[in-house]
Each structure stands twice: as C-alpha cells, then as structure tokens.
Write a structure and sequence with these properties.
The complex is a heterodimer of chains A (about 150) and B (about 725).
Chain A (H helix, E strand, L loop, with lengths): L2 E4 L2 E4 L8 H9 L17 E4 L2 E4 L13 E3 L11 H9 L8 H14 L5 H7 L9 H15 L1
Parallel strand pairs in A: 1-5
Antiparallel strand pairs in A: 1-2, 3-4, 3-5
Helix pairs in contact in A: 2-5
Chain B lengths: L1 H23 L14 H4 L5 E3 L3 E3 L5 E5 L8 H13 L6 E5 L2 H6 L19 H23 L6 E4 L2 E4 L5 E3 H8 L50 E7 L6 E5 L2 H4 L4 E8 L2 E6 L2 H10 L2 E4 L8 H13 L4 E6 L2 H6 L3 E9 L11 E7 L2 E7 L3 H12 L6 E6 L13 H10 L7 E4 L2 H6 L7 E9 L5 E10 L2 H5 L31 E8 L13 H19 L4 H7 L5 H13 L10 E10 L2 E11 L5 E11 L6 H20 L5 E2 L2 E2 L17 E6 L14 H16 L15
Parallel strand pairs in B: 3-4, 8-18, 16-17, 20-21, 24-27
Antiparallel strand pairs in B: 1-2, 2-3, 5-6, 6-7, 8-11, 9-12, 10-11, 13-21, 14-19, 15-16, 15-18, 19-20, 22-23, 23-24, 25-26
Helix pairs in contact in B: 3-5, 5-6, 11-12, 15-19, 18-19
The chains are: A alpha+beta (about 150), B alpha+beta (about 725).
C-alpha cells in the first residue's frame, strides 16, 4: 500500500498510481484546502510544498511521490495561521473569493523560504498563480510585508 | 478585533455546514436550521432573534443575517457594516450568517431578494437592512428601559452597551436580548436612518469579516463538501452547441475502479458517477460517446464575423437614440472620421469550476451550491426534481468567483438534479472539469461596431453615428422579449436617461443603432456586461475624433460633458490624481476614458509603454469612482484593483474562438489570464457624492480597456480597433 507523508503524518493511500497528488490529497486524505483549478499546472490553485519546493499537485502523479518525500499543504503551513505569509495576507486583506489563495500563500511561503527579501522581480517570477478576482496588487504588498516580518 | 470577529464568522459558517451535513446524514433536523423562527428557539443559547436581521447571543455576539451571495466582492462585510451602523453594536463582536432560500420562502421573503448580480447587492438593499439594524436597536433599548422601568428616551447605547443617564445603570445587548426578542418590532417607516456623513462603522475601511478561513484551507467551498456516502460525477455535454447525445458505450468503462454508472443527463449531456471525482473524470474520458453535432457544427469564428459584419450596414436596425440628423451632419461636416471596432466572445473562467451537490429522497430535495441566486437555485431544484418548493432547500456556499456565470443560468443545478435522480437518498457531487467550464459557458456576447463622426471647421463634434451589430443576451434568455430586435440592454452605457448607465456626452446630432445578430453560442452577463464593449467603442472612437480635431483628449471630452456634471467630476478626479498633462518618463504615454454603468460613474487614466517589439507594459492606472455612497472604501479599492486585472486579462488575451461549432480555448494554456507580473500599480480615488446609491463590483471595469488602448494610441499613433491585443500588431 503506497505511503505518503503529508503535513508530517504518514498515511496509507489506496489509489491508482497515475492519480494526481491533488486528488489524493483532496479525496483520499480529505484535505480540501488545496484546490482544483485547471488540471494542467497552469493556474497554481493546487500548489503544495514537496520537500520545500512549491509544486503544482494537479500534474504530479502520486506514484512519483516517494514515501520519504515530505508534502506540506496549506493546512500544514502553520497550526494557527501564524506563518508570516498568513499574517501578512490578513493584514493586507488580500483574499476576495479566496479560492486561489491557498495556492498563492503556498507559492509565497516557498519564495520567502528561498529568498527572505525578494525583489519585485523575484515576486514577478515566483508568483505566477492565477487569481480571477485580481488580488495581485495586494499579493505583492503582502509578500513584501511578510518579508519584513521575517527579518 | 479582526481575529475575534473573523473566528466567530468561521465558527458560524462551520456550524451551518455541520447542521446541513447532519440533516443530510438522516438526522431528524428541520429545514429551518441553523436558526429558527419559533420563540423557544429564539431564546436558546444560539441567541435571540431581534427582528429578521439580527441575532444577539448572551455573550453579546451580534449575528447579522446576510441574504446576498458573497463571491469575493465584499458584500457580506459591507452589508454587515450597514446593519451594525444602525444597530450601534460592538463591531468586534459581529459575525454573519447566511440565510437560505427555503427560510426566506417560509417567512414570506422577509429578507427580500437574494439574487446577487448587476452590482446590486448593497445598492438595492441598503435601506431595508439599515432599518433592520435600527429596529433591533430600538427593541433592545426598549427592553432595557422596560427592565429599569424608565422611559426609553432616557436610555442610550454605544458599542452595544446600554446606559441609563439618570441612574448610571448599564447593561449590554446580550443581557436584554431575550426580552427584546419578545417585543413587537417598530414600523420600519417610523425609523430615521443616520446621515451617512456621520457614519461610524459603515463608510469606514474595515477589514473583511470573511478572511480567516481563506488563509488556512479550512473554508468549505461547495466543491469541497464532504457528506456521508457521497458519490462523485464528471460530466460532458456536446462540444458543439446545440448538438445531441446519440449513444455511449457504458460496458467499455463499467469495470473501471470505483465506477457506479453512466447517466444520460439530458438530450445533450452524459455523466459518469464514481466513488471519487478523479475516477469519474478519467472514466468519462475513456467512455466512447457518439454525438449528433447538428447544424452548429458548420459555424466558425469566420462565419460569425461575417454574420455580424452584415449587420453593420443592414437596413433593419433598432434606432435606440435619434437626436437631430446625425447622418446629414456628418455628411456635411468639415472633417469625417470612420472606424469599425470588434470584440470577441469571452468566458468567465471562475477559479472554482461549476459544481453542485444534490441529494434527493422521496419527498425531499437538498442542494449545496455556489450560486449568485439562491432562490433561482431553489426553483431549479424543485422544477427539475418534481419535489414541491417547500420540501426543497438550497445551502449556498460562498462562491469561488461568480462574475455573472452563476446567476440566472442554473444549468449546473439542473444537471446535478438529473444525475442524483439515479441515486435516491445518496448525495451526488457533480464537478465540471476546467475544459467543460470553458466549453459550456454563457459567454460575453460578441459584437462589432461601426462609428462615424463629423467635426466642424473649429474642431467641434457636430454629429455621431454608432451602429452596433452583435448578439443579444436577452434574445438568448427570452427571445420573445426582444422579438422586434429592440434590445436596449445591448446599448448599455449609451442611454440618455440619468441614473443607471447614461452616456456622458451631449452631441447635437446623434444616432445610436443596434442590429441584432444572434449566433448558436450561448451568451450571458459577464462582469460589467455590455458596458465593457460599449465603453471600448465609444471611448476609443472619441479618442480618434479628439486626435482628428487636434485636441487634448481630456479637453475634448470635457467640452462634451457640461450637461453631465457627475460624469465630469469623476473624469476630473481621475485626471487630477492621474497627473494628466504632466511630464512622463521617456516612452511612457497616457490614455484616458470615462463611462457609466450600474448607477456609478467611472473614469481611468492609464500609463503605458510599447516596446520596439510591440510589447505593451501598463505601468500605472488611476481609477476614480462615484458610487454615491462608499460603504467600505478599502473594499471598493479591492474591487477596482480586481476590475483592472479582469479587464486587462480580456484586453490582452481574452477570446473564445469557434471552430467546427465548438469553442477552441478549453483551458488556461490557451485562455491566458493576466498574471501578477503584468499587474500595473492601481490607485483608486473614491469620490462619493452621497445623493444616490450606485454599484461597485462592475462599473470600473468598463474604463480599464479603453484607457489602456488610448494610451497605446498615444504611444504608437495608431488606434487599436480589435481585441484581444495579442492578435494586434502594434508596431
């Protein structure tokens, strides 16, 4: 039985190996904060961390994820919305409908882990997730704010 | 402050879901969950209902009922601010609760209209929700006065704390709520509402109440719903609009893991039901399906374009406005300007794909759905299931985007009901793939526009002729309504009537016409609806005329606007904040535009550069909005920022093209959306005049594209007359 390490918990999942990680997370593990938006790794609503790197889970077959790989979803980012990105998101009132925001937050957290003081160009390059409500201006402001708090 | 209220809101939301889940699980819980109208329930720990809009709990929490749908536009917070303003409660103790259409029906629509579209959420309910808040305040004060046996005129309230001036006694809303709930509400007409200029909660840039659970993945969108025993459905309708389902080969997929069955949903649609959605979707992809594509298969973007083009010069057109002799004035003018513009079909592409969960039993129908119109969802559930309205209930989930897609068209609710019929007593969640969403939208209608203008020898505009040829939303919804081709809705923004979508210019000789040219493609409202195309046509052509007159873009417009002071004031506000006329860095150019829609006045200034390779960069946009009142200036700014992103996605990339009768762009790889890197700096100028109530969610999108196109014109010296920009060679 395949094993997955999600948010620090090792779980058994019974599923076809070509099932995308996204649908394993949502339908087998039952964590629904990670969203389906396009299924073709375009929109980023399904972003999770795989060994600290942001990946688009809708295009990653679960069979390619090793039991030793560490998957972190939005539910595992912090126990109490205390991650600097989550705090900045609240302070700037980033979300509108909110559907893409799990992915935006995961992408921002991965960026800051790599570059604690990102430039606007760094943010442009890393934050490629689609938001149809158009929260981009506040996403940028919140990433900068989170970077300040991390310092 | 924020955390307390947001956490409360989340808790309220969660109890709602748990309540409905429990009901679905077969527990004998009534339709009226999560709150009731009976006096016993009203006095329970859940809190006491003080009139229809407010529930006060013993711990002083004020739960404000919300009838309209929240889809990101902030209406939930704005409506709560309006109620709280009159309630005079402690804002940090405010939470909200969605009412259901079943409850609204059972109580004779005490909460009024639930439909949320046309930027009407606040502007058409501000009066009665404020009266609801005021009525609750009056009842709570009366209850305190009764308890103290003093005249109510001697008690006052601040932040939910009631004080008797003479004795210094104090109590709180929570303590008198049970007594207040037994009092008769005052006559709403007897209530004097606060002067908006003296508002303390409304009118302030307060944080949204619904943010916390969007930050940690705990918010349950309808697509996230989990119910005991739930099955999952993936669906496919005929790719060609109007095509029919002929047959499918169920045995080919019957043995795939988890598959429970194939359902013919309707004449043109098939679904696969499985134990997970992924299994249903992949089985559906493997299902051999035979379609009868029908007559629509012969249609393409090219055939549609020539159909519309014929309408530009056809004799039969609806003369919407005819003032003076425009054709004669243009004919005899010193200078003539002519142009033909076009805009494509566009998809909404809400981030949360269409979905709906339905559970049908012998005498009960339930539905969990992201909807802009809960009552339309309820009606669709009842009609499609055959179960009477009073035995149906709709649990509305906040939407992962709406933009007009989830309003009047309840296609996805009807589909989900038909699928659930096959599985009695089992909840079935139907989720569309992104491809299905892009293939079966109700698209922004396609149109072309032919314009002509005449200038006299002093450069003054003497005549203007506008002829739009294109598809009608009304004709798609209800052909009989516009059988004569007279569809004023397609001329949104060009009316002479004040108040809603008035043209801001006065032209001595004016002819505005519409030639209805429908296609086989379904159409519907798309954020901003027809103001989008019509603002591009009017504002880009006025720019062409201004340049032909050798005039400054702002000065030329101002000269036409003396009879429209509100339009003019907003244009001036955008120009001032946007530094109109001031120097710019080398290579950067400005464009300006103004328009009216949804009862509000908008204007924009864009700063744009065009590279030698023809690549456009929008550096900065300043938008001004007069929505009459400004209930939450920060959320207005958020809507304006969002309208820039939505508008620029359309301007740069948006098009749905037709080949062999079906849509070509089926996912975000081909239907590109603006990304963060392309987002300009947006500055919002809110200029409320306090003498009307206008919309916020939609008005400003109309001016985004024309301001940018006019800046490109300034940069290149050439007008852009067709969209999207990705297809236009600029240099």
């Amino acid at each position: 039985m395949p094993k997955l390490n999600i948010n620090g918990q090792v779980r058994d999942v019974q599923v076809e190996a070509d099932t995308p990680l996204l649908w394993v997370i949502r339908e087998q593990v039952g964590l629904t904060g990670t969203k389906y938006g396009c299924g073709v790794a375009q929109c980023g609503a399904c972003s999770v961390h795989l060994n600290g790197q942001v990946v688009r889970s809708c295009a990653l077959p679960v069979g390619n994820v090793k039991p030793t790989d560490k998957v972190v979803t939005i539910e595992g980012l912090s126990p109490d919305r205390s991650h600097p990105v989550q705090k900045a998101w609240a302070a700037v009132d980033v979300p509108q409908c909110g559907y893409c925001q799990s992915g935006q937050i995961m992408a921002a957290a991965a960026l800051l882990a790599k570059k604690p003081k990102p430039t606007d160009k760094d943010i442009d390059d890393a934050m490629t997730n689609i938001c149809r409500c158009g929260t981009y201006q506040r996403v940028r402001a919140a990433v900068h704010m989170a970077a300040g708090k991390q310092a | 402050m924020k955390n307390i209220s947001a956490a409360g809101s989340r808790f309220s939301r969660r109890s709602f879901i748990v309540g409905s889940t429990a009901a679905a699980g077969g527990l004998a819980l009534g339709v009226r969950l999560p709150f009731g109208s009976g006096s016993a329930e009203a006095q329970s720990a859940a809190g006491a209902e003080i009139g229809a809009w407010v529930v006060v709990k013993p711990d002083d929490t004020c739960v404000i009922r919300i009838a309209r749908s929240e889809m990101g536009q902030g209406t939930l917070t704005g409506l709560a601010q309006l109620v709280a303003e009159e309630l005079e409660c402690d804002w940090s103790k405010v939470t909200t609760e969605s009412i259901t259409p079943g409850q609204n029906l059972a109580r004779k629509r005490v909460w009024g209209e639930m439909s949320t579209g046309g930027s009407r959420g606040i502007r058409t309910s501000h009066d009665y929700v404020r009266r609801g808040g005021a009525a609750a305040r009056i009842m709570l004060l009366q209850a305190a006065a009764d308890e103290w046996k003093v005249p109510v005129t001697e008690v006052s309230v601040a932040n939910g704390v009631i004080t008797h001036a003479g004795s210094g006694r104090k109590t709180t809303y929570g303590k008198v709520a049970a007594a207040a709930s037994k009092l008769a509400p005052p006559d709403p007409k007897s209530i004097t509402l606060r002067d908006p200029k003296a508002w303390k909660i409304a009118g302030k840039p307060l944080k949204r109440l619904d943010t916390a659970d969007k930050l940690d993945g705990s918010k349950v969108y309808a697509i996230d719903l989990k119910l005991p025993g739930m099955l999952h459905a993936a669906i496919k309708a005929s790719p060609v609009f109007g095509g029919k389902l002929v047959s499918y080969d169920e045995p080919k997929i019957a043995s795939r893991p988890g598959v429970r069955g194939v359902v013919k949903v309707n004449d043109s649609t098939v679904a696969v039901v499985a134990d997970t959605w992924w299994r249903a979707k992949t089985a559906l992809e493997a299902l051999p399906i035979v379609w009868d594509e029908g007559a629509g298969a012969a249609q393409s973007s090219a055939t549609i374009a020539s159909h519309l083009e014929a309408g530009l010069t056809a004799k039969d057109a609806y003369a919407f406005r005819k003032e003076g002799d425009a054709l004669g004035a243009i004919q005899g003018a010193a200078k003539k300007i002519e142009a033909v513009y076009s805009t494509p079909f566009l998809a909404h592409a809400t981030m949360e794909p269409m979905n709906c969960t339905v559970k049908l039993s012998a005498d009960r129908a339930e539905c969990w759905v992201p909807t802009q119109n809960s009552e339309a969802s309820l009606a669709a559930l009842s009609e499609q299931s055959g179960i009477p309205l009073e035995k149906c209930e709709v649990y509305r989930h906040d939407l992962g985007g709406g933009f007009g897609r989830r309003g009047g068209n309840q296609d996805y609710v009807r589909q989900a009901v038909n699928i659930a019929k096959r599985f009695p007593d089992v909840p079935v969640k139907m989720v569309w793939s992104r491809e299905e969403d892009m293939a079966h939208d109700f698209y922004r209608p396609i149109s072309q526009c032919k314009l002509a203008a005449g200038l006299d020898d002093k450069g003054a505009l003497v005549g203007l002729h506008v002829r739009i040829s294109g598809q009608s939303i009304n004709a798609f919804v209800n052909p009989a309504m516009v059988a004569n081709g007279e569809d004023a809705r397609q001329l949104q923004g060009y009316t002479d009537k004040p108040g809603d979508a008035q043209l801001g210019y006065t032209v001595p000789n004016l002819l505005i016409e519409y030639a209805m040219r429908n296609t086989h493609v379904p159409v519907g409202p798309w954020r901003g609806v027809n103001t989008n195309q019509n603002a591009v046509y009017m504002e880009c052509f006025i720019e062409e005329v201004a340049r032909a007159a050798g005039a400054d873009s702002l000065a030329f417009r101002r000269a036409l606007m003396s009879k429209h002071p509100k339009h003019l004031a907003v244009l001036d506000a955008a120009a001032a904040k946007g530094d109109w006329g001031k120097p710019l860095p080398a290579g950067v150019h400005r464009g300006i535009a103004q328009f009216m829609g949804y009862g509000s006045y908008s204007a924009a200034v864009a700063e744009v550069s065009v590279s030698r390779e023809g690549k456009v960069k929008v550096h900065r946009m300043v938008l001004a909005l007069d929505s009459g009142h400004a209930v939450n200036p920060d959320q207005i700014a958020a809507q304006v920022e969002g309208s820039v992103a939505y508008g620029l996605s359309a301007a740069f990339y948006g098009e749905c093209t037709v080949q062999n009768g079906r849509m070509t762009e089926l996912n975000f790889d081909r239907y590109q959306i603006l990304r963060l890197a392309e987002m300009p700096k947006v500055e919002t100028v809110v200029v409320p005049t306090y003498d009307f109530w206008g919309g916020v969610g939609e008005p400003t999108i109309s001016v985004v594209t024309p301001a940018v196109l006019n800046a490109i014109f300034a940069a290149t010296g050439k007008p852009v007359r067709s969209l999207p920009l990705k297809n236009v060679k600029l240099v």
